[in-house]
Amino acid sequence: MSIIIDRRLNAGKKSTVNRQRFLQRHHKVIHKAVQDALSQRSITDIDRGDNIRIPRKDLSEPVFHHGSGGRSEQVHPGNRQFHAGDRIKRPPGGGGQGTGDGDASNQGEGEDQFAFEISRDEFLDYLFDELELPNLVRKELKDATEFRMHRAGFTTKGSPERLNIVRSLRAAHARRIALSGKERKQIRELKRQLRELQVNPDCNDPEREEELRLEIQALNRRLRRMPFIDEFDLRYNSFTKLPLPSSKAVMFCLMDVSGSMTQSIKEIAKRFFLLLYLFLQRNYEAVEVVFIRHHTEARECNEQDFFFSRETGGTVVSSALKLASEIIAERFPPEKWNIYIAQASDGDNWREDIDRCREILSDQLLPLCRYFAYVEIAEAPQALWHTYQLLGQENEHFASQRIRSQQDIYPVFRRLFAKHPSSLAALRGFGYG
Amino acid sequence: MAERCLLSTGSEWSFELLETYDREIGRLAEQYRIDTYPNQIEIINSEQMIDAYAAVGMPLMYNHWSFGKQFLSNMKRYRRGQMGLAYELVINSNPCIAYLMEENTMPMQALVIAHACYGHNSFFKGNYLFKQWTNADSIVDYLLFAKHYIAQCEEKYGVEQVETLLDACHALMNQGVNRYERQAHLSPEEERHQAREREEYIQRNLNDLWRTIPVKEEKTQVKSERFPKSPEENILYFIEKNAPLLKTWQREIIRIVRKIAQYFYPQRQTQVMNEGWASFWHYTLVHSLYDEGLVNEGFMLEVLHSHTNVVFQPAFDDQRYSGINPYALGFNIYSDIRRICENPTPEDRQWFPDIAGSDWLDTLHFAMQNFKDESFILQFLSPKVMRDMRLFGIDDNDAHQYLEISAIHDEEGYRSLRQSLSAQYNLGNREPNIQVLDVDVTGDRSMILVHEMHQGRPLDAASTQEILKHVYYLWGFDVSLQSVDEYGKVQQRYWLPDSEQG
Question: What is the pTM of this model?
Answer without folding.
Answer: 0.70
